[in-house]
Design brief:
This protein has about 350 residues and is of the alpha/beta class. The protein has one domain: Aldolase class I (TIM Barrel), CATH 3.20.20. The protein is built from 13 helices and nine strands. It has helices at about 10-15, 20-40, 80-90, 105-120, 140-145, 160-165, 175-190, 205-220, 245-260, 270-275, 280-285, 300, 315-330; strands at about 45-50, 95-100, 130, 150-155, 190-195, 200, 225-230, 265-270, 290. Strand 1, helix 3 and strand 2 (about 95-100) form a beta-alpha-beta unit. Helix 3 runs parallel beside helix 4 (about 105-120). The structure holds S-adenosylmethionine (SAM) and iron/sulfur cluster. S-adenosylmethionine binds near residues 198 and 307.
Amino acid sequence: MIDREKLSTEELIRFLDEKDSIKIEELLTTAYNIKVKNIGSKVYLRGLIELSNICSKNCLYCGLRHANSNVVRYELSQEQVLDAAMFAWKANYGSLVLQAGERRGSSYTKQITRLVRKIKALSNGELGITLSLGEQSKEVFQEWFDAGAHRYLLRIESSNPDLYSKIHPQDAHHSWERRVKALLDLKEVGYQTGTGVMIGLPYQSSLDLAKDLLFMKEIGIHMVGMGPYLTHSETPLSKIVHKNQGLELTLKMVALLRILMPKINIAATTAMQVIDPEGREKAVLSGANVIMPNMTISQVRKDYQIYENKPGIEDDAAISKSKLEENLKNRGIEIGWSEWGDSKAF
Ligand code: SAM
Ligand code: SF4
């Protein structure tokens, strides 16, 4: 039996480094049982719409970084986003995630505000809206919250400021302290606040990952989306040789987080599906309870490649939806249709 209260940094590292497959299986099953006991066995779906790949930042790992001139930049029209939102609503998805590169400025802020209001109006307030639009001022977070967004995802990427500085340019636009401040601002405004980290980064140790888990607990986060780091050959970080960790380390992270935080929402992310076609389903069986199927129109999916080998770039929303439902059904996993699936930790 794993005792949550006794999961010290050393214990966490021991689990993260565990090689014995029986002990690993035990950990994943314990986490699954804790999830079922605390929040039930259902999986909640959030339709993911990748609004735009335009980004002002230069994170060293991301294919969308500003300096990558090979990317064909796009921005969906309000009409295209509303069509995708309508599809998600009619398909009984309880909520949406609107994600994009990071942009600032008052006309951009207002554009998002209008979009959030319109999505709320078209679904009679039924579609929940999660934003993932990077670091913004507290005033902007407030404006979007007032317009109807109620969840926000902003990964800390790594809770170790030294590691953060190795995977971001050394300038004022990429500050670990500012990212933490943004997370605290989001909580204060009243969002269900999500964060997360990349797993298997160059320079990252098991101690870093253990501390990531404890950081998420200490900051009192409501939702987490974490996944394996995957390379993109047009980024500086891809030139650093590192050991590919496979899915197992990510599953251990999901399981340990579920044990530490039994009531939060944990996403089974697309990056898990890249290293294992059934990665997301395996994560659900290790404690995750949210999946974000891609609802972005197929014409632009190939241009939103934060890493290479992104799955389903040829698919449209209907195909992504039916493939996922089929996979979940085959594994006996029930979907929470038309439910917001709010974090029980909120
Ligand atoms: N621009 C916003 C931001 O950075 O918060 C939201 C979009 S960004 C593409 C979403 C997430 O993608 C980031 O938080 C990062 O963790 C993840 N990401 C970017 N490049 C990645 C890579 N090469 N491998 C795995 N995840 C990556
Ligand atoms: Fe931009 Fe987000 Fe990619 Fe960083 S991770 S380059 S902020 S899209």
